[in-house]
Specification:
Blueprint: E1 13-17, E2 20-24, H1 27-36, E3 43-47, E4 51-53, E5 57-59, E6 65-69, E7 74-77, E8 85-87, E9 93-97, E10 105-110, E11 116-119, E12 125-128, E13 131-133, E14 140-142, E15 146-149, E16 152-154, E17 157-158, E18 166-168, E19 172-175, E20 178-180, E21 183-184, E22 191-193, E23 197-200, E24 203-205, E25 208-209, E26 216-218, E27 222-225, E28 228-230, E29 233-234, E30 241-243, E31 251-252, E32 257-259, E33 265-267, E34 276-281, E35 286-309, E36 314-318, E37 320-325, E38 330-335, E39 346-349, E40 354-375, E41 381-383, E42 386-389, H2 394-398, H3 410-420, H4 435-440, H5 446-451, H6 457-461
Parallel strand pairs: 3-6, 4-7, 5-8, 6-9, 7-13, 8-14, 9-15, 13-16, 14-18, 15-19, 16-20, 17-21, 18-22, 19-23, 20-24, 21-25, 22-26, 23-27, 24-28, 25-29, 26-30
Antiparallel strand pairs: 1-2, 1-3, 10-11, 10-12, 31-36, 32-33, 34-35, 35-36, 35-40, 37-38, 37-42, 39-40, 41-42
């Protein structure tokens, strides 16, 4: 009797840990082995063939440290949703490199949605070396430090969020990399960076964001050395790079109750544009209501703080938000860093129509989602009873000198307009298509705000800077 020998192993990947290299015939086993070998030391997973994955390669180890070597191969995701590589723990580290000395060309075609897609045909869109492509919730999503070296991130997308190629929550370092033909539904067509970043000798080109930062959207400090950022597009701010060091942009945690026009309440994450919510009309000096012209939702890992008031009201803000203070009768910005300095300050409670003292501040950890509401002309809204406005638009309301009834001094406003003038769209043809947006947010007093030092022209001009900012996608706004 003879026994047929076991079929030879056809390796697709190797894993090296503690100096020992093992071959694997499928990527799932290799990935599991790499994770298992990373508790005490890094493991290197090297692609030996082009690999397609239909589920995320994810890590969730406290001390995970994995090096993925693309080795001149293609790592392609075909999942309906999710990232190709996903490290959900903030302690370990992930590196993606290409150590191959042979770098062969890979060809792509540009699809109607702007994404680049792999093709077997020779085209004029190509890269050489290892490629990571096909991510649907970012090519790489990483909560821990991420290092990229000599790799190409091409044709990835974030269908419902930001960071088409990379969504990074911690430090990000990229050297000699290309980010081409990626797209994001929100911010950062190629890269969304919550942590500090350092790019050197990189190429960031042909990426698209439907909200901001066609190439990069950053909520931290970073450097770009010998790096080209060209041909990227965003619908609003920063066609090439959009930097927002105040990351939450005046947002609320999910579950915050927004007062509706009919007196009911609704969770902020459920608010949609066009709905009417309670507001305060400072020009009229009365409670009012207005349509929501922008319901913003973001995602990330941002610090939050819960504010407690004498009335018993509590409000959790993500990163920062503005409340109307009694001392100045101006909207002031409370952040996760300065909120404790405002203990004892009284803020306007819309529900009680009185000033409500801040009595406590508690760190609320981090939030993975945050939300904000902008209202037509009145701009403000009521959250958990407090009158609020997003910090990036507080200057629109702080042009007013308010009396004790919170009504704007019409005479002072007229005098300011006489000095500084009203914003005139016709003077700035670059703003074509934004008139409805700016009118809805009460921007006719923009020159007054600039003249009184409440905002700078550079801040306002930013939406039209970059590699194609404002190309398309401004939301249709209800102006009723």
């Amino acid at each position: 009797m003879s026994i047929d020998p076991a079929p030879p192993l056809i390796p697709v990947a190797s894993v090296t840990t503690n100096g020992v290299t093992t071959l694997y015939g499928d990527i799932a086993s290799a990935w599991d082995a790499a994770k298992a070998g990373t508790v005490e030391c890094p493991a290197t997973l090297k692609l030996l063939k082009n690999i397609t994955v239909d589920t995320m390669l994810s890590v969730n180890l406290a001390n995970a440290s994995i090096v993925v070597d693309l080795n001149d191969k293609v790592l392609k995701g075909t999942m309906a949703n999710g990232s190709v590589l996903y490290n959900e723990n903030s302690v370990g580290a992930l590196s993606v490199v290409d150590t191959s000395v042979t770098r062969t060309p890979k060809y792509f075609v540009r699809q109607d949605d702007g994404l680049w897609a792999l093709t077997n045909d020779v085209t004029d869109l190509s890269v050489t070396g290892g490629v990571l492509t096909g991510g649907k919730a970012s090519g790489i999503m990483c909560y821990s430090p991420l290092t990229l070296t000599d790799v190409n991130l091409v044709g990835n997308s974030a269908a419902t969020g930001g960071g088409g190629a990379v969504y990074s929550y911690a430090e990000l370092t990229a050297a000699c990399c290309t980010f081409l033909g990626n797209a994001a539904a929100l911010e950062g067509g190629a890269v969304f960076a919550h942590g500090n970043y350092d790019f050197s000798d990189c190429r960031i080109e042909g990426n698209v964001a439907q909200l901001a930062g066609g190439g990069i959207c950053s909520y931290a400090h970073g450097t770009l050395a010998h790096t080209s950022v060209v041909g990227n597009r965003s619908a609003t701010t920063g066609g090439g790079v959009n930097v927002k060091l105040s990351s939450g942009e005046g947002c609320f945690a999910a579950g915050t109750k927004i007062l509706m026009a009919d007196g009911s309440e609704k969770n902020v994450e459920e608010i949609v544009e066009g709905e009417r919510v309670a507001t305060f009309d400072h020009e009229g000096g009365t409670n009012s209501s207005a349509a929501v012209c922008l319901a913003y939702a973001g995602e990330g890992m941002l610090p939050a703080v819960t504010l407690s008031f004498a009335s018993g009201a509590k409000l959790t803000i993500v990163d920062r938000h503005d409340l109307l203070a009694q001392t100045t009768r101006k909207y002031v910005t409370l952040t996760t860093e300065n909120a404790a300095d405002f203990i004892g300050t009284r803020f306007y409670n819309y529900r009680t129509a009185s000033w409500d003292g801040l009595v406590g501040v508690e760190n609320s950890g981090r939030r993975t989602s945050f939300h904000s509401v902008y209202t037509t002309r009145h701009v403000n809204c009521v959250a958990n009873g407090l009158l609020t406005v997003a910090d990036d638009n507080d200057f629109v309301l702080n042009v007013y000198e308010l009396d004790e009834g919170l009504k704007a001094d019409a005479g002072q406003l007229a005098a300011d307009v006489a000095v500084y003038g009203l914003f005139d769209y016709a003077e700035y043809p670059q703003t074509a298509g934004y008139e409805e947006f700016y009118d809805s947010l009460n921007m006719q007093y923009l020159y007054v705000a600039i003249g009184k030092g409440l905002v700078t022209w550079d801040y306002v001009w930013e939406p039209w800077r970059g590699n194609g900012a404002g190309a398309a996608g401004i939301p249709s706004l209800d102006r009723n």
